[in-house]
Specification:
Elements: E1 2-7, H1 17-24, E2 29-35, H2 37-40, H3 47-67, E3 72-75, H4 78-89, E4 91-97, H5 103-118, E5 122-126, H6 141-150, H7 192-206, H8 210-213, H9 217-223, H10 228-233, H11 238-252, H12 257-260, H13 263-286, H14 307-314, H15 321-333, H16 338-351, H17 357-366, H18 372-383, E6 391-393, H19 396-403, H20 408-413, H21 433-439, H22 450-464, H23 468-481, E7 505-507
Parallel strand pairs: 1-2, 1-4, 2-3, 4-5, 6-7
The structure holds flavin-adenine dinucleotide.
Flavin-adenine dinucleotide binds at residues 214, 224-228, 231-232, 273-274, 276-277, 280, 337-338, 341-342, 345, 367, 369-371, 374-375, 378-379, 382.
């Protein structure tokens, strides 16, 4: 009889309760990663995700080998792989973390649960972070989050009893999975060692200016923690990240202000965002349909899908320099700061008036840190389809002037614009035909006039954001998903008995 530890988005040995529970059984342990071809054919995953995972698997195999049982990698449908192993060794239990994924993994988990039941095998799932399954309502959610993070970090198992005569199996290449190279030359490396270094570098050196530097893509690259791909693929646990941050905060307590500088505020703000991580994933856990369907029904069918505008946006050639620079930077690095992610979705949803689903899939493939719960909740929020958040229409020209005033970022990622004088770097269409000719400018005209397009979008959004039926639906969404105390400001639907508030569709942010 053997115990299987099924690794998914939890590619680490520290703070891994399924692994320590299996080790405690005293039976041989088979640590297993299953490469699922069906999952890798899904439109939200791509080359950069596999590259990050493959690096993490190499390190995980090494770490597990040190405890006595190397990671076994198999390719196929989960139930086929489990049935093969069961036929050979007889499985007494499967241990894993809960996964809040998209519709595909949700359906797969149901199949696995039915197979395990039918085979008389116990499958135990542990919570991975502050997401609660099942959750009746949001009351007390933040306090439960704190309690979960306060629990001790589980150390890696000292000794695992190995399963005899088992080939660990190769880790497939991206090519073998049919994943085309996607040009992410500056991707963050995978593995728990890289995760620990990244977190430590942030908490000790890079993070002091976090609050004021997070908004510009020029400074955010260094000033943000950059732990997101590690949280997404589980090379770092949320509890490890939170406790390390609390530890750093405690070490600053009582020190004179000259010594603590901006650190206290920076770390408080960072802990708030760690809450947000789980707060957003909880939305998908509670309502899996948000991956596909507009959260507020009033937005269903409101937007169109124009393939030409979509392609210009996805390829970074909208003719709006700051938008194109952000998209090209994302393509090459796999990461973008929050504000710029929000701006890309806003431009796609308002100025280009495209429905969020296809653009959301494109961004999912681009973000190395793709985390379905955060991603789809944020994509809907920034598209203004939740009904409970401010409809924020980012002005890409203003964003450019505010966060890249001398055009450094634009020049780095859109080299065609390198020679444009700084005052016009965010609006090259204002150059005269003669100036364009002199500069031999090979950059497109904007796909839409940004000012007119934003105004038109605001009117269209306003046309649905009124009336009692709209507010009643928004109230129901707020009750289900709204934050009680997660560091997020209260949503606006609580003002439901007041007249509609025009500030809730704000232009020019
Ligand atoms: C349209 C859109 C899509 C997004 N998709 C993802 C995604 O797929 N995966 C993902 O991890 N983040 C996503 N985010 C949230 C946020 O942009 C990233 O978490 C952040 O930029 C990651 O960089 P960091 O680790 O340096 O963040 P830091 O600012 O250092 O924050 C630390 C951690 O807190 C969490 N966090 C920070 N901001 C948010 C937020 N607004 N909402 C939820 N959690 C947050 C993340 O886990 C992050 O790693 C998305 C945001 C938008 C607007």
């Amino acid at each position: 009889m053997i115990e299987i530890v099924w690794f998914k988005r939890d590619l680490r040995v520290t703070d891994h309760r399924p692994l320590s529970a299996a080790a405690a059984s005293g039976r041989p342990v088979l640590p297993l990663y299953i490469v699922e071809p069906g999952l890798w054919a899904e439109p939200d995953l791509g080359h950069r995700h596999w590259a990050f995972i493959a690096e993490s698997l190499v390190e995980l195999r090494r770490n597990l080998s040190e405890s006595g049982a190397p990671l076994v990698v198999r390719t196929g449908a989960v139930t086929d792989v489990l049935a093969d192993i069961n036929a050979r060794y007889t499985v007494s239990a499967i241990w894993s973390h809960e996964e809040t994924g998209g519709a595909w993994t949700f359906a797969r988990d149901k199949v696995v649960a039915a197979w395990a039941r039918g085979s008389g095998i116990r499958w135990t799932e542990f919570p991975q972070h502050g997401v609660i399954r099942p959750l009746r309502n949001r009351d007390g959610w933040a306090r439960r989050w704190d309690r979960f993070m306060e629990e001790p970090v589980t150390p890696p198992p000292r000794r695992l009893v190995p399963v005899p005569d088992l080939d660990p199996g190769p880790i497939p290449t991206a090519d073998e999975l049919g994943l085309a190279e996607d040009g992410c030359a500056y991707r963050q490396p995978g593995g728990s060692r890289a995760a620990a270094d990244t977190l430590d570098g942030f908490l000790r050196h890079r993070g002091e200016t976090y609050q004021r530097a997070m908004s510009s893509p020029l400074t955010a690259e260094d000033a943000c923690s950059r732990i997101s791909p590690h949280l997404a693929w589980g090379t770092l646990s949320m509890r490890e990240a939170t406790q390390a941050t609390w530890g750093r905060m405690a070490s600053l307590r009582g020190l004179p202000r000259e010594e603590t500088g901006l650190w206290q505020g920076a770390l408080r703000s960072f802990v708030g965002r760690l809450h947000w991580h789980c707060h957003f994933i909880q939305k998908l856990e509670s309502e899996p349909e948000i991956e596909h369907r507009d959260l507020h029904p009033a937005y269903a069918g409101l937007r169109e899908f124009d393939p030409e505008r979509y392609t210009a946006w996805a390829e970074g050639r909208t003719g709006l320099p700051f938008v194109d620079a952000c998209m090209r930077a994302l393509s090459a690095t796999g990461w973008l700061n929050f504000r710029m992610r929000a701006m890309l979705v806003s431009v796609s949803s308002y100025h280009l008036w495209n429905h969020w689903r296809e653009p959301g899939l494109h961004l999912a493939r681009q973000f190395t840190d793709f985390e379905p719960g955060i991603h789809w909740s944020q994509v809907q929020m920034q598209s203004g389809s939740t009904g409970i958040n401010t409809a924020r229409i980012y002005n890409p020209i203003k964003q450019g002037h505010d966060h890249d005033p001398d055009g450094t970022f634009v020049r780095r990622w859109v080299p065609e614009l390198a020679a444009i004088p700084t005052p016009l770097i965010h609006e090259p269409w204002r150059l005269s035909p003669l100036e364009r000719k002199d500069l031999a400018l090979s950059y497109p005209e904007p796909v839409v006039d940004p000012v007119t397009a934003a105004r038109r979008a605001r009117e269209r959004i306003w046309s649905v954001r009124r009336g009692d039926a709209y507010r009643a639906a928004a109230d129901a969404i707020q009750d289900r998903h709204g934050s009680r105390k997660s560091g997020l400001s209260p949503t606006t639907s609580r003002r439901r008995r007041s007249p509609p508030d025009r500030r809730q569709a704000s232009l020019d942010v």
